[in-house]
Amino acid sequence: MDHDEATQFAHKRKMEKQKDRVDAKIAEATEERGIVILITGNGKGKTTSAFGMIMRCLGYGHKVGLVQFIKGKQHSGEELFLKERHPDVTFYQMGTGFTWDTQDKAGDIAAAERTWVHAEAMLKDASLHLVVLDELTYMLGFKYLDDDMILDAIRNRPPEQTVVVTGRGGGSAIRELADTVADIESVKHAYDSGVKAREGIDF
Ligand code: ATP
Ligand code: MG
Question: CATH no. for residue 181?
Fold first, then answer.
């Protein structure tokens, strides 16, 4: 066997082993149910990841519920796209902007409670394959909504429904409840070198 053949052979052996490991993992995962996914951390990509899953659902004709806590004061591309063009998405926005902008705690709590009513209804609606609770962690972190009320509603959702929660922080209870937790690290962000947020990329 010359050098090239030996390299090729070694590569094939390595890939076979890798395939066996992947196949074994796939064979082990047999349970069929909706899951809870938490996308958190300081890096960019939490909300956009949730919207990627919404797009996947729509591809299969599944219905989706989406509640955006905090956001909605300024327009976003996702809002413009989904609200106007997708009857399969039920969409509600809290619409108060960031809480450090409003500086009105009582007003924020009232808005959070109004918004939660919509989330709660979605978490009882078995026709929704996916419910996205975008930036929900801030409601937990700021104690605007009762933790147990939120966690119980997520726990008691229809078994086929998947819930995606996004946002930084939010405490340990939601991390424990979630089946999948991704903590997105910020290595760097263009904003820190003075680049303005861009339409279609950041909002
Ligand atoms: P995106 O909506 O782009 O997926 P995100 O949901 O991960 O971002 P948020 O905390 O919701 O992040 O903030 C949304 C906005 O903040 C976006 O404009 C995004 O580009 C920006 N952003 C995200 N991460 C960082 C960061 N580490 N530093 C500065 N700005 C950031
Ligand atoms: Mg976000």
Answer: 3.40.50.300
